[in-house]
Input
Amino acid sequence: MRWYHFIILVFVAVVGVVVQSTAGQLLWFRTELGWIGPELLAAVAVFIALYATSATDAALSGWILGFAVDLSVGGSSMGLLALLYAGGCWGIFHVREVFFRDRAMTQIIIGFIFCVFVYELWTVYDILVGGRASGEYFRPALQALGLSIYTAVLTPPVCAVLKRLRGFMLPMPPIRERR
Output
């Protein structure tokens, strides 16, 4: 990853956190489980993992985006989301050749799997370390599942917007000559 791509990615992460914590709050709604809404940086991470040129770039980008989410959330699990985002982006990079990455349904499925992986593991960590009461195990897990579904639905529009900025955010693979 070149430095200017890194700087642009950090800028995208900061803008994503600002949008998530200001205008993104309009997308959240209250249910019986608690507040459910999309994680826009998770959709950005899915886009980057689908279009990165190497597994290292995908994992590093996921780590940066996860760390930005960690900084915005805070709490005792600082750094866990960064590692989970990096692992999720690394995994998506390695299975992306099986899918047509430009299809909306593919982006929805991969976004859902990414969010389930990241936020269910984060919830399990919070349950195990946070010392919750015995009856409160399934509510956070269902809330993370709702967040995963909502984020997956919004992943194709986010990918469509970011696809136009792909040349600035990610290094482009070399173009093969026709013979």
